[in-house]
Specification:
Keywords: Acyltransferase, Transferase. By secondary structure, the chain is of the alpha+beta class. Helix content is about 30%, strand content about 35%.
Amino acid sequence: MSDILIRAREPADMADITELLNQPRAIWGTLQLPFVSVDARQRRAASSAPGDLHLVAVIDGKAIGAASLNRFENRRAHAGSIGMAVHDAYAGRGAGSALMAAIVGQADNWLNLARLELNVWSDNTRAIALYERFGFEREGVFRNYAWRDGAYADSVAMARLR
């Protein structure tokens, strides 16, 4: 994991992030649609809420993983939602763990968030194991949560309370 740098996402990262999210396995693990252009991703990034955290995992100058922490407002100001993905060619090299450590560290040590939550496909056992290592617990299953790759897929709601 020593060759992985975690840093804030920059506008120049959008080409790498687009490539990452257009990978078959990476897109399979998200709610994103495949074949999204760099321009569309740049527009979406520009519309992010000011309090959101966007990080990238970088190896040899290339953004190979991305994670976000979206903070809620008002009566849910104590909570945030996490999303992440890693480039298919770099899966299993520790980028997901490094991104999760950074997100959880920011939430705990700088934002004082008491609840972190996420949704993960019920058949994404590798991601579920990662989240469980960081203290996330299963809270329920959303049956037929979304259409993915030609069929409805279930999603597991997970959360980490501090």
